[in-house]
Design brief:
With 114 residues, this protein is an alpha+beta fold. It has three helices and six strands, in the order αβββββαβα. The chain has a four-stranded antiparallel β-sheet with strand order 1-2-5-6. A hairpin with a 2-residue loop joins strand 1 and strand 2. The relative contact order is 0.15.
Length: 114
């Protein structure tokens, strides 16, 4: 007698068996998201920085860009930047990360030291 509190298997009840409908197919990988999620290291006169691109699809909140002091709107591709060689360690640099417009980050001046 089958137990009624367990869900039925989609493939007819046999482990490892796949149906013709393709129920065992893996979910499709989102290559754009996979490629864009990795931070890269950038060296500049004002220190070592970790820069991670955020795609327009993954941008969901409003942030203030420290370069132009204007909002980074949802749906706009931008960069998340944190200082790798922070005075108080890498963990403190990560908590002080900021969201920059891509153009603001590329054209920033090095007159200041965070």
């Amino acid at each position: 007698m089958p137990r009624s509190n367990h869900p039925r298997r989609a493939n007819g009840g046999r482990p490892g068996q796949k149906t013709a409908a393709g129920s065992g197919a893996a979910e499709e990988l989102d290559l754009e998201r996979a490629r864009s999620g990795f931070p890269r290291r950038e060296s500049a006169p004002d220190g070592e920085w970790m820069v991670r691109p955020i795609t327009a699809r993954n941008a969901a909140k409003i942030y203030t860009c420290p370069g132009c002091h204007r909002p980074v709107q949802p749906g706009i591709a931008h960069l998340v930047v944190w200082q790798e060689d922070s005075l108080f360690g890498a963990a403190a640099g990560l908590t002080d990360r900021r969201h920059w417009h891509t153009n603001c980050w590329q054209s920033r001046s090095y007159k200041y030291r965070r």
